[in-house]
Amino acid sequence: MSSNSEGVKGTSRRDFIAAAVGTLFACPLLKACEYVDIRESGSTGGSGDEGFPFSINDPDFAALAEVGGNVCVAFGPVEVVLYRASEGEILAFEKLCPHAGLPIAECGEGQRGVTYDVASRQITCIFHTSVFNADDGAVVSGPAPRPLFVFPVTFDPASGAGSISTGGF
């Protein structure tokens, strides 16, 4: 797995910034842009080493209490999907697919959630079926032109508390 100084696996800082800027312009056009802005919701964020804490006991993150649940969060202009992949693991990855800028998954009641294959550890975009490796975001099959940004997550299932490492942006 490759990692850069920004704490995001499998991609360059330039690509990440380009995706963040694209999110700013794409989000108003999409109806699936409901998310928790963890910088403005009272959660305490810090440097990339501390990450952004979350708890499945917090009503904003209650969907993560069940395996298969997902929640969208935002770090400023960057939207991220948190997905409960198993009892002990929560994944975090960019919400918008690098192919066409459409959401990998939609968050909220009645929306299409994450398409995740447990055996292969692969995430599939709900629109044009690009497939990504959940560990490093690598493109398994396209049309996506670049990897998916994957954020490291620590999670303690006993307490329900976790932290998303954002690399300090």
Short description:
With 169 residues, this protein is mainly β. Helix content is 8%, strand content 29%.
Write up this protein.
The structure is a single chain. The protein is mainly beta. The chain has a single domain, classed as Rieske [2Fe-2S] iron-sulphur domain (Rieske Iron-sulfur Protein). 8% of the residues lie in helices and 29% in strands. The protein contains one helix and twelve strands, in the order αββββββββββββ. The chain has a five-stranded mixed sheet with strand order 1-3-4-5-10. Strands 6-7-8-9 form a four-stranded antiparallel sheet, with no helix packed on it. Strands 2-12-11 form a three-stranded antiparallel sheet, with no helix packed on it. Strand 4 and strand 5 (89-94) form a beta hairpin. The radius of gyration is 14 Å and the shape is globular.
List its salient traits.
169 residues; mainly beta; Rieske Iron-sulfur Protein; 4-stranded antiparallel beta sheet; globular; disordered N terminus
Low-pLDDT stretches are 1-8, 16-49
> Over all CA atoms, what is the radius of gyration?
14 Å
The CATH superfamily appears as Rieske [2Fe-2S] iron-sulphur domain
Q: What is the level 1 CATH name?
A: Mainly Beta
CATH topology term: Rieske Iron-sulfur Protein
Count of individual domains: 1
How is the secondary structure organized here?
Layout: H1 13-26, E1 36-37, E2 52-55, E3 70-75, E4 78-86, E5 89-94, E6 115-117, E7 122-124, E8 131-133, E9 139-141, E10 150-151, E11 153-156, E12 161-164
Parallel strand pairs: 1-3
Antiparallel strand pairs: 2-12, 3-4, 4-5, 5-10, 6-7, 7-8, 8-9, 11-12
